[in-house]
Amino acid sequence: MSAQQQRVNARRALTALAVLILALTGLLAGAYYWSTAQLSPKLGLDLEGGTQIILEPQTTAGQSVSAEQLNQARDIIVQRVDAGGVSGAEVTTQGDRNIVVSIPEIPTQEVRDAISRSSQLQFRPVLAVTAGAPQPTPSPSVTSTGSPSPSPSASATPTTASSATPTSNSAVPGALTAATPSPSTAESPSPSPNPSPTASPPAGATAPKDPTDLAWITPELTEEFQSLDCSDPAALEGLVDDPTKPLVTCEVDGSAKYILGPVAVSGDKISDATSGYRTNQQGAVTSEVEIALTLDGEGARQYADISRTMVVLPEPQNQLAATLDSRVIVAPRFNEAILDGRASITGGFTIDRARALSDQLKFGALPLSFEEQTSVDISPTLGSEQLRYGLIAGLLGLVLVVVYSLIQYRVLGLVTVASILVAALLTFLAISILGWSHNYRLDMAGVTGLIVAIGFTADSFIVYFERIRDELRDGRSLAAAVETGWNRAKRTILIADGVNFLAALVLFALASSSVRGFAFTLGLTTLIDLLIVFWFTHPVVSLLARRPFFRDGHPWSGLDPRRLVTSGVPRYAGRGRFTSPAPTPAPAPAPASAGGAPASSSAARPAQTPSPLASEGGVA
């Protein structure tokens, strides 16, 4: 590669680095002025404090909480907190009953709901439905006269979701349909505007035979149903959802109330849940948001059985309600049986709401329902004083590296200092932007990773500079030594940083939350180190090598040949070149006298050793 091309490549690398720094700075500034970013990294729970929430499980009478259930709930809550973008949270168990969640800052209501909500989707057959307000006159029979609910269809044909004729008082928008089309396109007749199916059990009814049997409706259940006022936000407080018994509950918005049969398909049979815009039969993406569910083998079989049973029943018994946290989110009717275990829930969701629900379902249903017992502010466990000590330790380490570099490499050591400063700037911008975009929080373990990274970064420069010196000792000019030394040094740097990054990945994947903070900053700074060495350190040294101050081996350049030459190594030849040391000629034997004595009484003189500094042309 020619000298001109080397200069062009060096300037391009420095320009690319400058553009990257300006772009990150502009992004952070824009996020600060027009979004919720802050101009410094967010701090973790141990440095800033936060909120501690204690969750207490809600159980039925006589139900106990096992350690396995508690540990399973803790693991699921950890996944939900991480999925919500909350970094640095701690989730632990307290005793053998409660779960303690510690979150930096004040959590939003969405985060609180995601933590404590059971998010267990259950499919229950509808036995009766009416308006959400309490009935004025008690009656032993429960009817659904004046039902506010439409009856969206649940069929294998995508178009049947909108084929149902809703009542004039629609309260249950949406449908539960199969995710893939079926050859069958049969549709059930649309219900009348005011369906009035009788929901009272037949006379002399025996024990219910299946979840759709009206014998589940007892006089006590009827009284509870009629007195329920869904417009009262506290109407369902303390509700215990027993999957083996019928449930009196409300629509999520309180506009309708239901008597539901026992669970026909449990939420733990859901193997996957995704959200997005629905695709019609022609393959075009529509504006309707859906939650697509995939059931496992047993769940698909149960869903097929209940759909075959309910498809022939009258309104509202042909509706299968999907309940989330014991409240009905949608209650579509069946037009035909769904046999493939893939269903789609639509109900006027926003894309954000659908995404939140699908995340909760995908991460699993809590084995228990939890209620927030207490919520208190907590102080930082380490605090600003320890952070200050950590920063002082990092600054002290940086100063020692700078002093060592200046002593060992003189002016060349300033390249090390500049490289560390640019790496620190990139690290600061990256962590601050991640705090805005991914709510990343810097904890004390992360600060430790940043401090350790100073040494790793300095190692890369030392490897490179020593390679250059080795090439100079081999007799190359400084410009050639820089390029040859770089080609050899970069392999060593890549291997060393690769090992560091692999260790960071393993720690991040397998270690606990505190060690993960260290692993994250270690991996981040390793990548930044590679970026700086390739885009800053090498280009700067490549340009400096053509300056007379370095090219001619000034004593303060750090590449002074006089300091590099040692016994038995090549000698300096001027302008960054070396020659092999000239052999010392052996003294000629003196002519002997007749008596065998030397001709001169003076001792033989050794040959004159040439000056270590050779001529410009390198001739000794």
Fold blueprint:
Blueprint: H1 3-34, E1 42-43, H2 45-48, E2 50-58, H3 67-83, E3 90-94, E4 98-104, H4 109-116, E5 121-131, E6 153-154, E7 175-178, H5 219-227, E8 247-250, E9 256-260, E10 270-279, E11 285-295, H6 297-310, E12 320-324, E13 327-330, E14 333-334, E15 342-346, H7 351-362, E16 369-378, H8 383-409, H9 413-437, E17 441-442, H10 444-473, H11 478-510, H12 513-544, H13 548-551, H14 561-564, E18 571-574, E19 577-579
Parallel strand pairs: 1-17, 6-14
Antiparallel strand pairs: 2-4, 2-16, 3-4, 5-9, 5-12, 7-15, 8-9, 10-11, 11-15, 12-13, 18-19
Helix pairs in contact: 1-9, 1-12, 3-4, 8-9, 8-10, 9-12, 10-11, 10-12, 11-12
CATH class of the largest domain: Alpha Beta
- Shape type: elongated
Instruction: Find the CATH topology of the largest domain.
Output: Gyrase A, domain 2
Counting DSSP E segments of at least 2 residues, the number of strands comes to: 19
- Roughly how many Å is the radius of gyration? 39 Å
End-to-end Cα distance, whole Å, is: 31 Å
CATH architecture level-2 label of the largest domain: 2-Layer Sandwich
Strand content: 15-25%
